[in-house]
Specification:
The chain has about 325 residues and is of the alpha/beta class. The chain has one domain: Ribokinase (UDP-N-acetylmuramoyl-L-alanine:D-glutamate ligase), CATH 3.40.1190. Helix content is about 35%, strand content about 20%. It has an 8-stranded mixed sheet with strand order 4-1-9-10-11-12-13-14, sandwiched between helices. It has a 4-stranded mixed sheet with strand order 3-2-7-8. The protein has a two-stranded parallel sheet with strand order 5-6. The longest helix has 15 residues.
């Protein structure tokens, strides 16, 4: 029997996080000020963030038969994610190197490893087994495109919602975009898709939520003016994983019955709060913390203006 829940289809990596005074420019060498090895991968980060919000969460991905895979799956299980549908393949578990400067800005280099071997047939079977009406299926692009497409097809088959976080960005086929109820890129990724929102809507995308870092997000829907969703003012320590926390919270909010506008505000608050910890999962806020921050922050208590939510003061 299926449950209303978030099903994440994506990557799992071992992250090597390097602290630097400033990010290097091309050809520059900078000293490392410290190193931490953590668990990451966009899909695993999103699953952990959704579980922290108290919704039933399933992770579907691929790992190797190695210590990195054991550690990654074990950490997800520890935070309450259902990992029973993780596929083990004959490849090393994915890895990423993350450099973070003193302002919390970062760059990331990813080695796909086992993530590149995720079987689309496994994805389709796993989604149809674990999801149903009221569920949200969330996928990103650190796995093969055919596995992402299988997730979208399975979501449609079982009557679940399908959200795609197109990161890292690449050109996407029309039929994959047509399966998206919601597309959640950041500003750069939206540009790299080489397709304006109007064209996305023509293909069948239901809504586009563009994340803009400390400026919040923008909700775009056909027939509606753009709605600006402000971020919370927080003492950001590390922005790594903030986008993952945002999209996971958005999907969790939708399974809780929140409308698009409120789900975007919920997601913006969760994404902001996530930056107060070090690393992609340094701080994963609970549902109570997110709701409390929304109630306490003065911007959230103002009614929307005709052009959308007011800019943060």
């Amino acid at each position: 029997m299926t449950r209303t829940q978030v099903v994440v289809v994506g990557s799992l990596n071992t992250d090597r996080v390097l602290s630097v005074a400033s990010l290097p420019v091309r050809g520059e060498t900078v000293p490392c000020l410290g190193e931490v090895v953590t668990q990451g991968g966009k899909g695993a980060n999103q699953a952990a963030a959704a579980a922290a919000l108290g919704v039933d969460t399933v992770f579907i991905g691929a790992v190797g038969d190695d210590p990195g895979g054991d550690a990654g799956v074990g950490e997800l299980e520890r935070v309450g994610v259902d990992v029973s549908l993780v596929q083990q393949v004959a490849a090393p578990t994915g890895a990423a190197t993350v450099a973070v400067d003193r302002d919390g800005a970062n760059f990331i280099i990813v080695e796909a490893g086992a993530n590149a071997a995720l079987d689309p047939r496994h994805v389709h079977q796993a989604v149809t087994r674990s999801a149903g009406p009221g569920s949200m299926i969330l996928a990103s692009l650190e796995i093969p495109l055919d596995a992402v497409a299988a997730a979208g097809q399975a979501a449609r088959q079982v009557g679940a919602g399908f959200a795609l976080n197109p990161a890292p960005a690449r050109l996407l086929p029309d039929d994959l975009l047509a399966s998206c109820g919601v597309l959640v890129p950041n500003e750069v990724e939206l540009t790299q898709l080489r397709m304006p929102p109007e064209r996305l809507f023509t293909l069948g995308v239901g809504a586009v939520v563009v994340t803009r870092g400390g400026e919040g997000a923008e909700l775009l829907r056909p027939g509606h003016p753009p709605a600006h969703v402000p971020a919370l003012r927080v003492a950001a320590r590390d922005t790594t994983g903030a986008g993952d926390a945002f999209v996971a919270a958005f999907c969790a909010a939708r399974t809780l019955g929140l409308d698009l506008d409120t789900a975007c505000r919920f997601a913006a608050a969760a994404g902001s709060l996530s930056t107060t910890g070090a690393g992609a999962r340094g701080h994963l806020p609970s549902r109570a913390e997110v709701e409390r921050s929304m109630a306490d922050h003065p911007v959230w208590n103002e009614p929307p203006s005709p052009g959308g939510w007011p800019a943060e003061r």
